[in-house]
Amino acid sequence: MYTPDPLKIRGNNEKHIEGSKKEMEDDLQQRMVKAILEIDEEETIRLTGKALKEKIPLEKIIDGLSEGLKQMGNLFEKGEKFIPELVIAAEFVDKAFKILEPHLSPEEEKARGWRSVKVVIATVEGDIHDLGKNLVVTMLSAAGFRVIDLGKDVDAKTIVSKVKETNAQVVGLSALLTTTMSHQEEVIKLLIEEGIREKVKVMIGGAPATQSWAERIGADAYAENAMEAVRKLKEILGEG
């Protein structure tokens, strides 16, 4: 008479459970991506809460949210998604991340990837143009960075004070006028005076800005557009 091996049965059951759990995690990630691409805030928030309730690993939830935004950015670059859609998606995914934050341990904080990088961004003093800057804010947020947008016509002292207050690792400076470009350099000089320049990466942009201007004033990077801003920022942070 055949007698089943209990250890073999147990091993097969454990494999089945592990397989089912992985399938559930993968399915939830795919549904998150789909909800984000469909600009479905309610479903994205619901899935985030459901994942927490079912004790799905936080890094899996974060991966799902991040992948959704990444695909949104790729579709925007191809002209298949538009600025309003990016803005809305970035806003409600940020709400989902905030739901997760109280549950993150220090180790899991590191697993958030770009979510741990704070970027202070502003259009410099004397310049009221912010369309380009706003698009950069949207794309950086969509890429997973934590963006602190100070708005337009912001003086160097305010920018540097916010950097110190938030311990930001990056400063983004936009200037749309040749007459305001000098304020980008002013911010860098103030960072040096405050003794924190080595702790902060500086990226500049705007119609009159160029790579040679960035090199001249000591900026770490120059980005011509919003998508390039994401790529350049990852490069200067060492993971491009």
List key phrases describing it.
240 residues; Methyltransferase, Methionine Synthase (B12-binding Domains), Chain A, domain 1; 2 domains; 5-stranded parallel sheet; 59% helix
Describe the structure.
With 240 residues, the protein is of the alpha/beta class. It folds into 2 domains: 6-111, Methyltransferase, Methionine Synthase (B12-binding Domains), Chain A, domain 1 (Orthogonal Bundle), CATH 1.10.1240.10; 117-236, Cobalamin-binding domain (Rossmann fold). It is 59% helix and 9% strand. The protein contains 10 helices and 5 strands; from the N terminus they run αααααβαβαβαβαβα. It has helices at residues 6-37, 41-53, 58-77, 83-100, 106-111, 131-142, 156-166, 182-193, 211-217, 226-236; strands at 118-123, 146-149, 170-174, 201-205, 221-222. Strands 2-1-3-4-5 form a 5-stranded parallel beta sheet, sandwiched between helices. Helix 8 (182-193) links the parallel strand 3 (170-174) and strand 4 (201-205). Helix 2 (41-53) packs parallel to helix 4 (83-100). The longest helix has 32 residues, at 6-37. The chain is elongated. The model has no long low-confidence stretch (mean pLDDT 87).
The CATH architecture of the largest domain would be: 3-Layer(aba) Sandwich
| Order of helical and strand elements | HHHHHEHEHEHEHEH
Rg of Cα set: 22 Å
Question: What's the CATH class of the largest domain, please?
Answer: Alpha Beta
Average pLDDT, to the nearest integer? Answer: 87
